[in-house]
C-alpha cells in the first residue's frame, strides 16, 4: 500500500510548470546561474577551427580540426536550449547541424533542472510502502514496476524522469538479484551459465522458504545472515535519502541487507549530518553506521579505499551466497581513474562474489570491459552480458566540462566475478579412474 501523500506547502512555487525554460545565465535560480558561470569558465567551444584542448572521450566522435584558432571557452548560449555551447554566435551557427542532434535533450535537461528547484510539491517522491508477499512485483520495466508496487500514478514524463533519477540505484541492484528479474539465461536474457550459478546463490538467500517459526521459544528457527552489498567508489548514491534505499528492502520481504558504502568520497556533503567518528579499536576505520534504516536493512559508510580494507581482513570471510559487489559508473577504463582500481579489482576477483557494474553510456561501459579484459585476462567470468539497463535513469545529465557530453545514470549494466576452476575438468581425469 502506498504512503499517503502529504499536503503541499502553502508557499507559492518559484516557477510555474509552464515557465520552466530559462537561460542558464539569466535563470531566476541562483544555483543554476552559478552553474552557468562554471560552464563558461571551464568548457571549450567544440568548433573544429579551434585547436583541441583534450582528447575526446570517444575517438569515434572526434571531428577533424584545422586548429587555426586558439581554444576558447563557451560564451554563447543557444536560444533553443539556453545552455552555453559555443564561443560565439558565428561558431554556434556553423555547428548548428551537429548541435541540433542534442539540442532537444539539452532543453529537456534545462527544464528538468529548473523544475527540481521550482519549489513545487513533488508527489512522485512519496514512495510506496512494504510489499505484500502475495502480490508479485513485475520487473519488466519502470511502468510495470511502479504499477505493481502500488506507487501513486505518475502521468507526467518530467515527474517520471525525476523519480527514476533516484530509484535507478536500488532498482538496478534489485532487478538483477530478484527471482523475477528481467535478466535470464534464455536467449536475449543476457545471463550466462556462470551468471545463473552466482545469482542463483544470492536469490536463494534473498528468497528463503517460510521456516514455520513463531514468537515463542519453541518457534525459534535459524536464519541466514544479511546479504552484504558492498558499493565501491560510492559518491552521490551514498547520500541518497534512506527511503530510496529502503525500496530495495521492500522488493525482498523476507530478505535482509547490509549496505556498505566504501570510497574516499562516500561522505561528501554529509559532514554536517554525520561527523566522522574517531577511529577506535572497536571501529578501526571510523565507519558511520545507520543501524535502523529499516528492520531488515542496515547501512554502513566507510571513507577509505576498498583494497585497504580487504588487506586487513575486515570483512573476511566472503561467501558468494551472502556477498555482492556493486560499482556505479566506476570509470575502470577512464584514463583519470583507472589507476585507482588497479589494486582493487584483482582482490575482488579473489572473493568469487558477483560484481555488478554500470556505465553512463555504451562507450563508457565498453571501455570498462576492455580494461578488465586487459588487466585480468583469463581470471574472470562474465555473469551478465553488457547491455542497456532496464532500470536506467530516464533523466539525462549534462557534463559541465563539456556541454556536448550528455549521459544518464546507470545507462548500461553488466556483471562478472573471479573465475572458478573445476577440480576435475573431465570425468576421465578423476583419480578413481
Protein model, in words:
There is one protein chain. The protein is α/β, with parallel strands linked by helices and 433 residues long. The chain is built from 10 helices and 12 strands. It has helices at 30-42, 89-94, 96-116, 142-148, 157-177, 193-206, 242-251, 306-312, 344-351, 362-375; strands spanning 76-77, 84-86, 227-232, 257-262, 288-294, 297-302, 323-327, 355-359, 380-388, 396-398, 406-408, 412-418. Helices cover 28% and strands 14% of the residues. The protein is globular, with a radius of gyration of 24 Å. The strands form 3 sheets. An 8-stranded mixed sheet has the order 5-6-4-3-7-8-12-9. Strands 1-2 form a two-stranded antiparallel ribbon. The chain has a two-stranded antiparallel sheet with strand order 10-11. It comes from Diatrype stigma.
Amino acid at each position: 500500500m502506498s504512503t499517503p501523500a502529504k499536503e503541499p506547502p502553502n508557499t507559492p512555487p518559484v516557477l510555474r510548470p509552464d515557465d520552466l525554460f530559462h537561460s542558464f545565465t539569466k535563470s531566476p535560480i541562483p544555483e543554476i546561474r552559478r552553474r552557468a558561470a562554471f560552464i563558461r569558465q571551464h568548457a571549450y567551444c567544440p568548433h573544429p577551427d579551434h585547436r583541441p584542448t583534450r582528447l575526446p572521450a570517444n575517438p569515434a566522435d572526434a571531428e577533424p580540426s584545422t586548429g587555426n584558432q586558439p581554444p576558447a571557452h563557451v560564451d554563447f548560449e543557444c536560444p533553443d536550449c539556453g545552455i552555453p555551447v559555443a564561443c560565439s554566435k558565428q561558431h554556434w551557427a556553423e555547428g548548428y547541424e551537429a548541435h541540433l542532434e542534442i539540442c532537444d535533450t539539452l532543453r529537456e535537461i534545462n527544464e528538468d533542472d529548473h523544475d527540481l528547484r521550482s519549489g513545487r510539491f513533488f508527489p512522485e517522491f512519496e514512495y510506496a510502502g512494504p510489499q505484500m508477499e502475495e502480490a508479485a512485483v513485475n520487473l519488466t520495466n519502470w511502468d510495470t514496476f511502479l504499477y505493481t508496487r502500488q506507487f501513486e500514478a505518475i502521468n507526467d514524463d518530467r515527474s517520471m524522469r525525476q523519480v527514476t533519477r533516484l530509484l535507478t540505484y536500488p532498482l538496478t541492484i534489485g532487478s538483477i538479484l530478484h527471482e523475477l528479474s528481467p535478466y535470464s539465461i534464455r536467449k536475449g536474457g543476457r545471463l550466462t551459465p556462470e551468471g545463473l550459478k552466482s545469482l542463483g546463490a544470492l536469490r536463494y538467500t534473498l528468497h528463503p522458504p517460510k521456516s514455520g517459526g513463531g514468537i515463542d521459544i519453541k518457534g525459534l528457527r535459524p536464519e541466514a545472515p544479511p546479504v552484504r552489498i558492498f558499493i565501491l567508489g560510492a559518491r552521490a548514491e551514498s547520500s541518497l535519502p534512506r527511503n530510496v534505499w529502503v525500496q530495495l528492502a521492500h522488493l525482498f520481504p523476507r530478505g535482509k541487507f547490509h549496505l556498505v558504502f566504501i570510497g574516499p568520497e562516500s561522505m561528501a556533503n554529509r559532514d554536517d549530518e554525520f561527523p566522522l567518528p574517531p577511529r577506535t579499536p572497536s571501529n578501526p576505520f571510523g565507519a558511520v553506521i545507520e543501524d535502523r534504516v529499516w528492520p531488515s536493512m542496515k547501512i554502513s559508510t566507510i571513507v577509505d579505499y576498498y583494497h585497504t580494507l580487504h588487506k586487513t581482513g575486515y570483512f573476511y570471510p566472503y561467501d558468494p551466497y551472502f556477498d555482492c559487489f556493486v560499482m556505479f559508473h566506476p570509470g575502470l577504463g577512464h584514463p583519470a581513474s583507472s589507476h585507482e582500481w588497479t589494486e582493487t579489482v584483482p582482490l575482488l576477483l579473489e572473493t568469487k562474489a558477483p560484481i555488478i557494474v554500470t556505465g553512463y553510456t555504451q562507450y563508457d561501459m565498453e571501455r570498462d570491459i576492455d580494461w578488465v579484459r586487459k588487466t585480468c585476462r583469463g581470471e574472470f567470468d562474465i555473469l551478465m552480458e553488457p547491455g542497456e539497463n532496464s532500470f536506467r535513469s530516464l533523466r539525462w545529465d549534462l557534463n559541465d566540462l563539456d556541454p556536448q557530453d550528455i549521459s544518464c545514470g546507470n545507462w548500461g549494466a553488466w556483471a562478472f566475478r573471479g573465475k572458478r576452476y573445476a577440480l576435475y575438468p573431465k570425468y576421465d581425469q578423476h583419480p578413481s579412474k
